[in-house]
Amino acid sequence: MPKVKDEGLAGKGKDSIEWARAHMPVLSEIARRFLKERPLDGLRIAASMHVTKETAVLMLALRDGGARIFLSPSNPLSTQDDVAAALAEEGIEVYAWRGMSESEYFWAIEECLKADPDFTMDDGGDLTVMAHEKGYAERIAGGTEETTTGVLRLMALERDGKLRYPVIAVNNAETKRNFDNVYGTGQSTIDGILRATNIMIAGKWFVVAGYGYVGRGIANRARGMGAKVIVTEVDPIRALMAAMDGFIVMPMREAAKLGDIFVTATGNSGVIKAEHVSSMKDGAILANAGHFDVEVSVKDLELMSLAKRDLRENLREYLLPNGKRVYLLAEGRLVNLVAAEGHPSEVMDMSFANQALSIEYLVKERGKLPAKVIPVPRWIDSEVARIKLRSMGIEIDSLTKEQEEYLRSWRI
Amino acid sequence: MPKVKDEGLAGKGKDSIEWARAHMPVLSEIARRFLKERPLDGLRIAASMHVTKETAVLMLALRDGGARIFLSPSNPLSTQDDVAAALAEEGIEVYAWRGMSESEYFWAIEECLKADPDFTMDDGGDLTVMAHEKGYAERIAGGTEETTTGVLRLMALERDGKLRYPVIAVNNAETKRNFDNVYGTGQSTIDGILRATNIMIAGKWFVVAGYGYVGRGIANRARGMGAKVIVTEVDPIRALMAAMDGFIVMPMREAAKLGDIFVTATGNSGVIKAEHVSSMKDGAILANAGHFDVEVSVKDLELMSLAKRDLRENLREYLLPNGKRVYLLAEGRLVNLVAAEGHPSEVMDMSFANQALSIEYLVKERGKLPAKVIPVPRWIDSEVARIKLRSMGIEIDSLTKEQEEYLRSWRI
Amino acid sequence: MPKVKDEGLAGKGKDSIEWARAHMPVLSEIARRFLKERPLDGLRIAASMHVTKETAVLMLALRDGGARIFLSPSNPLSTQDDVAAALAEEGIEVYAWRGMSESEYFWAIEECLKADPDFTMDDGGDLTVMAHEKGYAERIAGGTEETTTGVLRLMALERDGKLRYPVIAVNNAETKRNFDNVYGTGQSTIDGILRATNIMIAGKWFVVAGYGYVGRGIANRARGMGAKVIVTEVDPIRALMAAMDGFIVMPMREAAKLGDIFVTATGNSGVIKAEHVSSMKDGAILANAGHFDVEVSVKDLELMSLAKRDLRENLREYLLPNGKRVYLLAEGRLVNLVAAEGHPSEVMDMSFANQALSIEYLVKERGKLPAKVIPVPRWIDSEVARIKLRSMGIEIDSLTKEQEEYLRSWRI
Amino acid sequence: MPKVKDEGLAGKGKDSIEWARAHMPVLSEIARRFLKERPLDGLRIAASMHVTKETAVLMLALRDGGARIFLSPSNPLSTQDDVAAALAEEGIEVYAWRGMSESEYFWAIEECLKADPDFTMDDGGDLTVMAHEKGYAERIAGGTEETTTGVLRLMALERDGKLRYPVIAVNNAETKRNFDNVYGTGQSTIDGILRATNIMIAGKWFVVAGYGYVGRGIANRARGMGAKVIVTEVDPIRALMAAMDGFIVMPMREAAKLGDIFVTATGNSGVIKAEHVSSMKDGAILANAGHFDVEVSVKDLELMSLAKRDLRENLREYLLPNGKRVYLLAEGRLVNLVAAEGHPSEVMDMSFANQALSIEYLVKERGKLPAKVIPVPRWIDSEVARIKLRSMGIEIDSLTKEQEEYLRSWRI
């Protein structure tokens, strides 16, 4: 049985969804077409997504396209309960509330899989992996995956020869990865830190672990707020790029001693561990912007601290044996989703337009695609950018015939 | 009778104040000295300040110095009720709750004046002006004023020959105006806009009205978040500075057509009026970062709109006759204080250290200062900066004897 | 017969090369190894490269590796005559002087091809294309190409089924394209504009045509100097990225009316034509940062103008029929190479380390590689970054065994 | 007898002056008025200014106003010989060539004083101080001073009770100090470093000594070019401002170990001395942007080094006893003027418009002003900004009557 926290919140949720939709012109245009063309008629989709106002706009677009939707969260803490209630009222089958236990979280995902879906839509890979581990994958025709973390997991699954159906790596679309991961996480991570702490960023040492798409976005926004930004990396090329971008690059072991604020964005585990925490300054603040809550080792914090208490919402103080205190935001989970509201609608517009068009593509190509992690077709990417620019009132140049010819030539 | 919203919130308020104090090392050091030296013993202070966690740290420092404090808000919407409760429990006489009516607001200020204060501490000038208009000024020995707006009002009062006691323009201290107004308002205005709207700032047209200390701070932070920033000004020198800083300068009448987000920071009234609103794009967002709620003409909005509704907290939609909608944040009041938590503690640390030391200076110089708006003594300014740097672990150079001599010389 | 402008300049050229080498630690380390291992012993290399102090360090490294070098320029205006003289003295066979005519330029390239080279090293594609058009290609074992423009030409050649030997696209190495094209051209383009004009950049409208690697670098540096930056593009995804990076995006036809300074960086032709020039402001400045002098249509300028004169070195004034004047820098050729000294050594260090290691790779794999445009092997890329970081004194993290394992796993 | 290097350079000088004038619209407008009104008719002006193309535009404007001009340089290395020749041809009495000895430099200044001037126009204070030391001051009616350094010297002279005539501190005009010192020196210092070294700035540690107007400008431009910027200061308030602006603040003794590039901008002497140089990295680059060549102690460098040589123009290598090499730019003199061309015309336009209007003001108020360092009248400042904005095509708002009234009011 679908389940949300409080159906009475539906009204507030609807206002919230309407506000999001007003800032998602690309997805709105797709939704209008879906309503007319009904390309998903009769299909079932199992989704594991952060249940936010932007996800709601996507779910309703898929419904308008004819699909029946089963929605579970992709993080126990990221559900907006008013939105969940509004979706339930709109006929989406929602299994989500903020503050689920781990077992409730996996229960919710499995409920969606039990609904016999044609397609999966995943954020982080938990749904897809469970589909494969628990035998649901055989009857599924295809899926999409939203995040870097999820794509890496599914590529590992593919490498192990176990992937059973085609999954479109929505994350890797240029109009997703170059925007959502960079500008979306950049802004919303700063937002989450401010809501959780209200501290001054200007003049602080701000350590960003990882200089991928997400890390780059955060580092730039932190600098834009006046911080002195340190980057840690394991990849020499990315490290060099950070250095040339004017950031200070050093190993985490050195950064740990300097930092006032730490944000992890690596897609890896154990980036900040006991050995680092021990050398931190009194008052250091730790946050994570990567998909899983393993980048800052919460386990290490729990083991090493003498006491803990919650000082503000999403702000937990740990007292260390050396007398110092460190502060963990949002329990080490995605700080932008837990302490703030996740990415702004404008950027989710692009990511989710890719989602909607990828599902439509999976339907059209049903049975023809290999059981691999496959890229978003280039035309989808360009189409999303084109509609977005138009919605922003931005016109661009186009190639003249002479220019197209010039680009094709190689003669002197 | 002192009055707060709910005494039961005191516990939460205390946590909040503790968090603020941990980020206010300068004021904390002064408070420790005050507790030992008791420079304010037996004195009464009437204050009209935003009742936030940072103000609480100041009030408690003054109490530790021996003063009895009567505290009213300086804006009907900016009180943090948990902090007010905590202060009440600590013995501060508080007349403040969030969402006061205008008459309650002025009642609260007058209650503080009725307490027969020796000194006033003001934010915006309402307390000081009322003291003069209602005959309390005669028995008051001095005061301080926190804001640009307040200082301008008191200078007008002085020009009219009506100022009755010396008021220290804390706002004009370098360690106040160059920090609080620039970095504090810069960050917290962005914070307020994000909390109220969760919109994307990158790629948006962001219009800042006014390029004084506050406007400059906001323009820089907006750019740091990826916005295309337009500045409007009435002063040619400031306008030119904005242009050379890489901002686009134009009259509001032109900016109105382009802007996605508008923030006023002029200290003036009627900066955004009906004529501007009429030409705005559908979805335009209006916010104010100046002291009074007159910079965006709320009256014009109310008069011209066909309907209004609240879509999110602090986000009011106005439907215009031309079918477009504009969104007013925080009812046109200080967006950083109403929709977020005001300036970060770190920067209030400096402003309020100036406040505490200025009050101490007024006590020492009681009876010797003219009834004028007077500057913060330079040594206070330097002292605040010096303690702040030390608390940040920053060491600086000092002049050698040879260098001091060099600076004094004029020979070839 | 090899030919330079003035052999007497060799001394000055050597100082210049020494200064460059001091800032090229990666290439220097490779040169030291080459001298010991002599991997290029007995081989002949025909190169068409900008004859600058950095190229000299590369040529001498190849010579130290055992090769005999025949060097022609890759642009008639970019040769540094003192460097050419120094190289001649060091035994490199140089056919280059600044200000060659077009026929001299192609003569120089063909002289190098006549030397029966084993490998070609090209910058822009003129050498490789001539090798194919004039029948030298059959006896050549492989080549490298330095630029975006050259790679595009050779891919067109490959598409037409005419490429006869493997060419490594050095341009596409991450340690080349993400650094040289972005940071190198970014800085040196600003440098070239300043040397040619000495105008103020702050407060100006600065139009960048193209938002690829090069365009992005220029746009960022122009903003860093205080300009209001406009970007024009033909690709919707890049255009959107520019917009989200805070730049103003519009078609050239609109930008033409606003711009004070224009820089083309598209790899295409006819980006700024008569129709644009006609609508420009009096005093507009035109520069090109793309490989060929066709991006700003010099032909159009010549045809439409009533008069022209040279006001400063590299600054030509054109008087238009409408009475306005526009200024063309460096005859529309690469402004960073003609009006300044090209990329800084530090960044050429990385590009040319890729060149040296790619030539060594071609030698080792001789006969085994397909006649295609092929990428730089990933290990070369990483190795270049690693040495560079070490030379900058930057240490980075490395993955722990647990982390490597975590990255391989996909389970929940 | 007036003297320049080579009268044959006058043609080139005229082109150069014409280019400058085209970018100096405010001064050009004043010159047109001067030519009509002849406010300086019959007066003699002795000037000690950097003899650049922009100064030439000012001198010719003063001449158009009716004055007879005697011009000496304000730095032995900053004269542009072609400009000097052009001015001589135009009837200005010029005593200036690049590379004067110290005694020639002071001879030139005294020649101008011997011409019995009514007014002095100074840059750095050498002329004014000599006028006072050698007894010329008595017959002089007033003067102007262009720089921070000069104003500080003249204030010291005034403090010592020795100033004999009123000197207008042109430097302190807002339209001078906030523009010329910040944006002008910021850009031209970067320009000078690039021309002298062609090194990469991105990724480098860039140390700026002093965070006054000039230091702030340089620090911002260095950051804009991708450097990691360190600031050193002696003033705690400025140090704190640098920290909040995101710069790294530390004492020079620590910065010396880290820096790749050092620029002094303090107005003081001995900022970089032997003790600092000894701890620098091999290859460190030293430059000065302050008025006198005493900020980097050239004397210390000369004393401590084992050998020196010139590697490029304006780039001198010093070999230290520890085997390391440091590089001094432009002999420690103003790097922007010696290695590049000084401030861009656009910003000198404003400074020199203040000069021209200040001289006119001195003429009008002759005999009425006290023998003090006096500020530029506020109306001149605003007027300069207003004309500048107009020339840039920028329109701004003006206060409505209601707004003016609002600003005058203090009531609740």
Compact summary:
Chain A has 412 residues and is of the alpha/beta class. Chain A contains 18 helices and 15 strands. In chain A, α2 (25-37) runs parallel beside α3 and α16 (345-364) packs antiparallel against α17 (378-391).
CATH homologous superfamily title of the largest domain in chain A: Adenosylhomocysteinase-like
Number of helices of chain A: 18
The overall strand count of chain A is 15
| Gyration radius over CA of chain A | 22 Å
**Greatest contact between two chains:** A-C, 62 and 62 residues
Give me the side-by-side strand order of the main sheet of chain A. 9-8-7-10-11-14-13-12
> Alpha-carbon distance between the termini of chain A?
70 Å
CATH class of the largest domain in chain A: Alpha Beta
Instruction: Assign a percent range to the helix content of chain A.
Output: 40-55%
The CATH architecture name of the largest domain in chain A reads: 3-Layer(aba) Sandwich
- Structural class designation of chain A: alpha/beta
Oligomer: homotetramer
- Global outline of chain A: globular
Topology-level CATH name of the largest domain in chain A? Rossmann fold
Sheet of most strands of chain A? 8 strands, mixed
List unreliable stretches of 5+ residues of chain A: none
Mean pLDDT level of chain A:
96
Write down the domain tally of chain A.
2
Q: Note the beta-strand portion of chain A.
A: 15-25%
Subcellular location (chains A, B, C, D): Cytoplasm
GO biological process, one term (chains A, B, C, D): S-adenosylmethionine cycle
Pathway (chains A, B, C, D): Amino-acid biosynthesis; L-homocysteine biosynthesis; L-homocysteine from S-adenosyl-L-homocysteine: step 1/1
GO molecular function (chains A, B, C, D): adenosylhomocysteinase activity
